[in-house]
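Could you please consider the sequence and fold appended to this message?
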Amino acid sequence: MNEKEFCEGLLAWANDRGIAGLQLVTALDDGGYEAWLQADLAGYLKAKYKGQVAREQSVYRQESWRVDLLLNPELLTKYQILVEIKAQTAKQSAPTFMSEVEKDLKKLDEGRRNIYVNSGAFMLAVTIEKSADDGMAGWKPDDVNYIFNRVLSVGGIAFYLAFSDSEGEWRAAKEIDKSAIDKSAIGKTTMESMPKVGTPRVNQQLFGPGDSF
């Protein structure tokens, strides 16, 4: 599974679950949304791509730390992709949530075991209220670049993705074709109402720089 396929798989999963499915556990205040998202997305991707995904794998020097998802676990580590997921809870303020996202970015940057330093990595951040959504949309973790794309915004939930390549440089995830999204309620809402975010250099829209939302 490559970067493009993961992006497509994520949006296909969202399409399949629908707005009601994505909203089902957002009211949980104990981190339950993140746990559900990790398990459900992993199962969906595993079925879609015939394996190629594992959960809670040891890739960090800190033994107690586990990466949420590991893509291509059967391949050499240079072809594997780490995925950290951070989902806002009902009791988390926007600054607290973004601080947790920043911790995961730092963990991916500085905490990996040596054999994983050249692996790609995704940071998937999910907001469930407007202030956190607005905060992520305008956030430059290094105070210079926007590294996140808002790839889905529907029913009060927004999904943000950033990708780190083998050189360790964070950037917005690659573009994918609109054809990757079914014209379902999720797809229509995404394409019709998703606002533009960030700057063209590093925060291109997932569906193509010429699209109008």
Q: What stands out?
A: Residues 3-193 form one domain. Confidence is low (pLDDT under 50) at residues 175-213.
